[in-house]
Write a structure and sequence with these properties.
The chain is an alpha+beta fold and about 525 residues long. The protein is built from nine helices and eight strands. Helix 7 packs antiparallel against helix 8.
Length: about 525
Amino acid sequence: MHHLLPVVTPDPTWGERRVVCNYVCCVDAFALSSTREGKIVSVSIFKSPPLKSAVSIASLAAIMVMSAPAWAQQAMASSATTNLDSAAAAGDAAPMAPPATPSAAAYGPPVVQQSAPRGEVAIDWQQAPAVAPPALVQALDLISRNYPSVRGARAAIRAATSDVRGAQWQRFPNVSVQTSFVGTGNTVAPSVSVSAPVWTAGRLGATIKRARAALDASEAQYREVVLGLAVDTTQLYFDIARLTRREAMIAESLEEHRALVASMERRVAQEVSPLADLELARSRVAQIEQEYAVAKAQRQASLYAFAELVNDPSFNIGNVPQYKPDIQLTGRATLMDEALGYDPTLQRLQAQIMAGRAEVSATKASIFPQLNAQYTYNDYVGSRVGLVATLDTAGGLSRFSAVSSARARLDTATAQLSTAQRQIRQRINNDLTEFDSAQARAAVSRDASFTSNNVSQSYMRQFIAGRRSWLDVMNSLRETLSARLGQADAEISAMSSFVRLSLRTGRWTPFVDSSK
């Protein structure tokens, strides 16, 4: 039985590092060059004992893998010694810096260096415009961290990151071990094969590019999900504010109409006014009660939807935001370019186009043969090393059909990019038109509300003096309510469209590492 845990021991005489098995094994030693260049100068392979088994093959592989970090550590130690000797020879000309600690040797494809782990994108909504109330900022922070679709998008980034590393591992050798029983005595016949790609016609490079493009698409999709939720939450929040103001105004008007109904009932009882005036007042009260019930139900439904978004039924939505007439939208000339450069949907589609191009390259490369360097060993022919050319047709001319399919998918992604650009321009234009229109309506409705309220009070006094009819009084109250509701809708619409434009152009972005 061979020993499975080889011992790595330094040789103080020659400064060499040797891998010595405690028992008789296939490999005796790997010597490091004494010139401190970190190269293997000799490999001594002794004839193995007659008994062959899968255990001996595993021992050979374990020695090779465990000795690799030792070679790297020895090379770094030699380099560090050389640097210290040079510094000592320089004397006291300059203060000596502490020696750098050598990093541990790594086996495998290099890890992409980045400022923050991918999949854990930092979120910060605090750089909000003055129009956005604190309750909305807090709600967006909760939603962008805890909403299920956001968590799913983060998981997709982690999966895409693993796919990139898996694609990079394809550049490394492939080890295959087989064991079979032959003969009447069930003799064990182990075989091992180690192959490494030498030339793949660009297939491996295209596969890695496709994986990296898929990672970029996953990150863009994460931003797309966060931004989409932010826009929906903003719209829902200001809808709640609008419905709250409508409900309060309608309730106030309803009290006024009920008071007028009570007054008209007394006038009818005293036979001062006809019964038709009382029926008119009661009809207007019924209409306003209907509007109040509708506004209350809409507000309640919006509150339930908002509670589902933040996943907190007791979330304090705060007071209704106050409209400021001095809201200014700056940089109108660059507004569209900012939206097209920031929108995560376009970034995702561009990444998918890059992935489609890499897929076309990889599919083309699969038509050509692949050249591998291969080492094989078994009990019948012993060890063999050579180059192996492999061509896989995958059934007739299906490879050529796959190339056509990849090109068609690339054309589809390109068309989707053009469509998305048009949709973004349309949304920006709609929000911009809504903002300008809402500001104009808010200014006009403010004056109309003030004027209609004065007219209503004047009509009431004239009715008591006998100069106006009861119908004129009812109509003036109705016009006053319509003007106030129009003012509330316009003011809330202006604030909502301003915040949506800030989100869609990246002027208010939660992504700390945003390229913008």
